[in-house]
């Protein structure tokens, strides 16, 4: 195959030159041709090795890298059994490239490749990192042009918007981590090396605490892929040499991670199914590594490590959603603990089945009486018992462009201690909408332009359409009628979701571009007492307000207020770019109007 080039003009003051994508056959003959190109010996480049899919329903394969000596790197890859069958090398050359820009472009293409789904990624997880450098915004605009050119050449099948709105992209183990997340992953690895080298007595617990959007799930999936790479026999020294985790890829350290049984526990069915799909598409991971708490408890084989995402949604002992599950809960406790701990929780199951446990936790996201109690979670977070417990905190807000300030502000608004004054969150769109028709139309318009924009609501209306699909569930002013989510799994990506309302059980753990949040009458504001109050009658989730009779615990109004405000806190922190609100209760509408601008 003769090499070909493609270039794009640029108006940047940095250079009058343009980038080029030079194509070579990935073979010894192609290597000879590349060898004659002087740029390939001493200049920073980014390259994509790929093989197109052989069948319409099959997947191609892709590997993304960067190098200062492409000639040598090309030859090394040809000798690598895992890559030698690839067919084409696309080499991106630019007169203005430096090492930082190449690393950034490499990370950009790896992230998008992992969410494209037309290819199987061959990269290991060397730890892509978000770093700033001179004129980065200019380069990032160029990167999007490069991606589109590679897409035109058949390397990718989806647009950037399609990829960035996909669950495969959002939960990819190849995501670039910020300094905060990288530090936590590195600290977790240090702890695991210590424990694997000298196993202590009993189950060891590490707690990763973080608000919504700090990337707890991303850290969990990233860690799972990194552990797989550390424990594998496949070695790609070029990829590890400049990794932030380079020291962990030394032979004696890697030996500690080989043949370890590791699993990711996800309590929520919807998120569990999504992550199973991500793991199935990721080399070194598999769908059966993503487990429910009951699957772990019923598994005969012990785990070396279990990572628990959304650990605040693990269940306590008590009546489950159906009688058969309640009976099974009792049987599992009997089996695991020999009748000694009849009230053990799902967290107890996990600790009994694994030598090491890592919990991803946010105490503000418990939403049902059956969830692990806040007191249990806070006891786990308490770092005073440092000899048996490790605690890590994720501080940086990654989901909302409103940042940590917006997340904290929402938490205050929904608490007994509201903010002293209204705040502004820059480009983040936030507003109170009096007319529900305006809210619904606004979110649907956002969905047309940006995608992934949905209406969500508190559980303040019966789910009539579950048995009568032709009927509506949510009835609002101005002739607005909506149905609850027609599916409980992957609702956000279903075809009907733009015309329905999602509940807490469909969106917790997920991102939206824009969220339209409907506050039902389950949460009200007493203007005389100046306080938030709950209406038990208007809260329609029976399991969300049920007394835990088996454990002898009543669900008080104080507890219910905590659960319901947590639900709305979760709903209001789903939107990446904006959140719009409608409140049914007049008092609550007036209260929220103190803190959010009214949108006509």
What can you tell me about this protein's structure?
About 35% of the residues lie in helices and about 20% in strands. With about 600 residues, the protein is of the alpha/beta class. The chain has three domains: about 5-165, no CATH class; about 180-395, Rossmann fold, CATH 3.40.50; about 405-600, Rossmann fold (3-Layer(aba) Sandwich). The strands form five sheets. The protein has a six-stranded mixed beta sheet, sandwiched between helices. β15 and β16 form a beta hairpin. This is DUF2075 domain-containing protein. It holds the Pfam family SLFN-g3_helicase. InterPro entries: AAA+_ATPase, GIY-YIG_endonuc, Helicase_ATP-bd, P-loop_NTPase, SLFN_3-like_DNA/RNA_helicase.
Q: Largest sheet, if any?
A: 6 strands, mixed
Give the overall average pLDDT.
89
State the low-pLDDT regions, or none: 9-17
As for the CATH topology of the largest domain, it is Rossmann fold
Helix/strand/pairing category: alpha/beta
The oligomerization state is single chain
What is the first-to-last residue Cα distance? 60 Å
InterPro entries: AAA+_ATPase, GIY-YIG_endonuc, Helicase_ATP-bd, P-loop_NTPase, SLFN_3-like_DNA/RNA_helicase
Organism: Corynebacterium kalidii
Pfam families: SLFN-g3_helicase
Protein name: DUF2075 domain-containing protein
Architecture blueprint of SSEs:
Elements: E1 7-8, E2 19-25, H1 28-35, E3 45-51, E4 60-67, H2 70-78, E5 88-93, H3 99-116, E6 119-121, H4 136-152, H5 160-164, H6 167-170, H7 179-197, E7 204-210, H8 216-231, H9 237-241, H10 251-257, E8 262-265, H11 269-280, E9 290-291, H12 293-298, E10 303-308, H13 323-337, H14 346-353, E11 354-361, H15 374-381, E12 389-394, H16 403-413, E13 429-433, H17 436-450, E14 453-457, E15 474-476, E16 480-482, E17 501-502, H18 504-507, E18 512-519, E19 523-526, E20 531-534, H19 542-545, H20 557-571, E21 575-583, H21 586-593, E22 598-599
Helix pairs in contact: 1-2, 3-4, 8-10
Domain GIY-YIG: 42-120
InterPro entries: AAA+_ATPase, GIY-YIG_endonuc, Helicase_ATP-bd, P-loop_NTPase, SLFN_3-like_DNA/RNA_helicase
Organism: Corynebacterium kalidii
């Amino acid at each position: 195959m003769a090499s070909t080039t493609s270039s794009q003009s640029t108006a940047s003051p940095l250079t009058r030159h343009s980038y080029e994508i030079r194509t070579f056959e990935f073979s010894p003959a192609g290597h000879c041709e590349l060898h004659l190109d002087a740029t390939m010996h001493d200049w920073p480049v980014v390259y994509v090795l790929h093989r197109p899919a052989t069948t319409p329903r099959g997947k191609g394969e892709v590997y993304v890298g960067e190098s200062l000596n492409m000639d040598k790197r090309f030859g090394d890859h040809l000798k690598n059994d895992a890559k030698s069958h690839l067919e084409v090398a696309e080499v991106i050359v630019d007169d203005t490239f430096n090492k930082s820009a190449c690393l950034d472009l490499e990370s950009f293409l790896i992230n998008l490749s992992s969410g494209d789904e037309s290819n199987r990624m061959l990269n290991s997880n060397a730890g892509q990192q978000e770093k700033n450098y001179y004129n980065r915004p200019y380069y990032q605009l160029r990167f999007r042009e490069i991606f589109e050119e590679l897409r035109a050449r058949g390397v990718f099948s989806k647009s950037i918007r399609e990829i960035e709105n996909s669950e495969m992209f959002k939960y990819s183990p190849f995501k670039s981590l910020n300094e905060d997340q990288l530090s936590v992953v590195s600290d977790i690895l240090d702890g695991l090396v210590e424990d694997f080298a000298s196993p202590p007595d009993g189950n060891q617990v590490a707690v990763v605490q973080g608000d919504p959007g700090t990337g707890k799930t991303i850290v969990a999936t990233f860690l799972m892929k990194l552990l797989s790479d550390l424990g594998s026999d496949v070695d790609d020294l070029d990829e590890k040499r400049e990794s932030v985790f380079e020291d962990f890829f030394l032979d004696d350290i890697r030996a500690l991670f080989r043949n370890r049984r590791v699993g990711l526990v996800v309590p929520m069915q919807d998120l569990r199914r999504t992550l199973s799909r991500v793991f199935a598409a990721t080399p070194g991971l598999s769908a059966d590594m993503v487990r429910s708490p009951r699957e772990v408890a019923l598994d005969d084989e012990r785990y070396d490590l279990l990572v628990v995402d959304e650990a605040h949604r693990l269940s306590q002992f008590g009546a489950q959603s159906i009688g058969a599950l309640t009976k099974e809960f009792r049987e599992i406790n009997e089996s695991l603990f020999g009748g000694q701990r009849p009230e053990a929780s799902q967290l107890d199951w996990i600790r009994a089945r694994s030598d090491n446990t890592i919990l991803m936790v946010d105490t503000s996201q418990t939403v049902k009486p059956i969830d692990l109690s806040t007191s249990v979670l806070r006891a786990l977070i308490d770092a005073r018992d440092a000899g048996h417990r490790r605690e890590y905190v994720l501080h940086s807000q990654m989901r909302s462009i409103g940042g940590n300030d917006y997340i904290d502000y929402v938490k205050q608004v929904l608490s007994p201690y509201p903010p002293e004054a209204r705040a502004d969150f820059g480009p983040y769109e936030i507003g109170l909408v009096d007319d529900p028709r305006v809210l619904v139309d606004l979110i649907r318009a956002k969905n047309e332009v940006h995608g992934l924009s949905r209406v969500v609501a508190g559980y303040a209306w019966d789910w009539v359409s579950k048995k009568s699909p032709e009927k509506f569930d949510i009835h609002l002013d101005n002739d607005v009628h909506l149905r609850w989510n027609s599916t409980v799994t992957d609702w956000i990506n279903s075809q009907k979701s733009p015309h329905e309302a999602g509940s807490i059980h469909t969106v917790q753990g997920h991102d939206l571009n824009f969220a339209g949040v409907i506050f039902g009458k389950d949460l009200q504001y007493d203007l005389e007492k100046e306080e938030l109050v709950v209406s038990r009658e208007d809260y329609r989730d029976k399991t969300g307000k049920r007394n835990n009779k088996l454990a002898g615990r009543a669900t008080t109004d104080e507890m219910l207020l905590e659960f319901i405000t947590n639900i709305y806190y979760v709903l209001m922190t789903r939107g990446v770019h904006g959140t719009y609100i409608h409140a049914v209760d007049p008092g609550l509408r007036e209260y929220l109007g103190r803190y959010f601008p009214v949108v006509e």
